[in-house]
Amino acid sequence: MPTLLHISASPLHEGSFSSRIADAFLASWRESNPGGTVDTINLWTEQLPAFDAEGATWKLKTMAGVAPSPEDAAVYARIRGVADRFLAADKYLISCPMWNFSVPYTLKHYIDVLVQPGLTYGFDPAKGFFGLVPDRPVQLVLTRGGSYAPGQQLAHLEFQRSYLEGVLGFIGLTDTRAIVMECTGYGPAVSDPLLAQASAEAAVAGQTF
């Protein structure tokens, strides 16, 4: 039976718009997949390994084909644990608010640990970069305080969906779908109907995901 990995990037939990929409998706998905498993990574409580100078050194050596040192092997083991959990899933759900036009730093940290040569992408001097993750469906649940639709004042600052779709495609995940709720900061008169609409959309999406 399928395993769905839910990567939750909001610190607000039940008060979060993205979490509430994701809950509607998950309830529907569980109903349609009674034998399925949901593995949730709460990025605000998950103890991710630091990706510091040691990690950057290991990454550069790996890309250059330099043999790793024992210290490098310890770094690799920590990174490999994150990648193995990600790769064990059959499907992905990422629920994420927009922070400063992009994603929260906890999600960026997770991505920086996950996107590694030899684990989730490869490089060949002749053909360049290529993804190593088998293409599996990804459902994005994205929320934003304002409107970033084409033609709006802030449209050129939308680096949330574009970033996620770009980095996921880089590692091989091109089957991405998105439920986007905008204007969460406009107050209940505006946000409540939009939340209901997005939650209904999520419930439908979960049935066939």
What does this structure look like?
With 209 residues, the chain is α/β, with parallel strands linked by helices. The protein has a single domain (3-208), classed as Rossmann fold, CATH 3.40.50. It is 42% helix and 19% strand. It is built from 6 helices and 7 strands, in the order βαβααβαβββαβα. It has helices at residues 17-32, 53-64, 70-87, 105-114, 161-170, 188-208; strands spanning 3-8, 37-42, 91-97, 121-124, 128-131, 138-143, 176-181. The strands form 2 sheets. A 5-stranded parallel sheet has the order 2-1-3-6-7, with helices on both faces. A two-stranded antiparallel ribbon has the order 4-5. α1 packs parallel to α6 (188-208) and α2 (53-64) crosses α3. The longest helix is centred in the C-terminal third of the chain and has 21 residues, at 188-208. The two termini are 13 Å apart. The mean pLDDT is 93.
Sequence of strands across the biggest β-sheet: 2-1-3-6-7
Can you write the helix and strand succession as a string?
A: EHEHHEHEEEHEH
Shape, per Cα inertia axes: globular
Amount of beta strand: 15-25%
Kindly identify the CATH topology: Rossmann fold
Radius of gyration: 18 Å
Summarize the main sheet: 5 strands, parallel
- Helical proportion? 40-55%
Number of domains: 1
Mean pLDDT across all residues, rounded? 93
